[in-house]
Amino acid sequence: MTGGAMIDEWYPVGLFSQLSEKGSNTYLMGEAIEVARDHNGNAQVVTGNGQTLPVRVRYGHVWSSLGNPDKELFAIPEADQPGRRFVDVGVIRVRCSPLRAVENFLDIAHFPFVHTDILGAEPHTEVENYKVEIRENEDEVWATQVKFYQPQAAKSATGGITTEYMYRVPAPTCSVLYKTCPPRPGEWDVITLFVQPLAEDLCDVWPWMALFDDDTPMTDLIHFQQMIFLQDRSILENQIPTLLPLDPGMEIPTRADLTSVAYRRWLKRHNYTYGAQLVAQ
What's the domain range around 181? Predict the structure, then answer.
């Protein structure tokens, strides 16, 4: 298995609410693992040869690692905020690099063309200037002051609005999106993408949300987010090359790709290379 420092990171491996003592079999970076509840009801993750892996339960998910994480799982303060609804969207398997899945989540320019009349619409296709930085203290990639016109920004939205976004990458296969909250203009809705790398070209995507929305049925919230990601899946599964290129000369970025450029630079800096293509072929 390759992947450099990524072996020591935390990854989602299942929904805690769906665990049973019988357990379920899955993969993490090519390694067969079993995720289950022990006799005390706690989550446990074991490899095929019986090795017990470290476990955390957070944001509705079970997290584990094949290595030895030197830091705790990243914090999402909104997960502890009273009044929010927490939405376990489920899992979607995608035949693509786990890094490609995150990069696509960071891409704003595709909204009008892939999520037509929902997250974007022609002729509102221009991506306005926004700010991107690698925050050294947190060691995270952030994009702020992102604004985009959306016909239906959320399930709770009743008409088109200009939505403001912030994007955050706290881990190589996870991204947190903060966006305008229609029912509460002073707050942010939180939509995350937790990606489980099954192999370098295959992943399970676990979206999760923390919303202020007291009216929409839970099933509708889940179906809305699944619909959005399923629209992305066909794009992801047809990208060439399959692995995410980290050499800046392999793909030509535009102004709309600033977050992607920073993300790739950050991955390369940390030797996060599982699912990446390092040189042109």
Answer: 83-277
Q: How confident is the model at residue 249 (pLDDT cuts 50, 70, 90)?
A: low
pLDDT at residue 45, rounded to an integer: 98
Domain tally for the chain? 1
AA identity, residue 135? R
Q: Is residue 125 part of a domain?
A: yes
Give the pLDDT of residue 220.
Answer: 87
Q: What is the CATH number for 250?
A: 3.90.380.10
Pairwise CA distance, residues 194 & 172, whole Å: 10
CA 237/CA 239 separation, integer angstroms: 6
Domain-located, residue 111: yes
The partner residues of 179 in beta bridges, in order of sequence, read: 165, 189
Query: Exposed, middle or buried, 180 (CB in 10 Å: 0-12/13-18/19+)?
Result: buried
Q: Are 231 and 115 within 8 A, CB to CB? A: yes
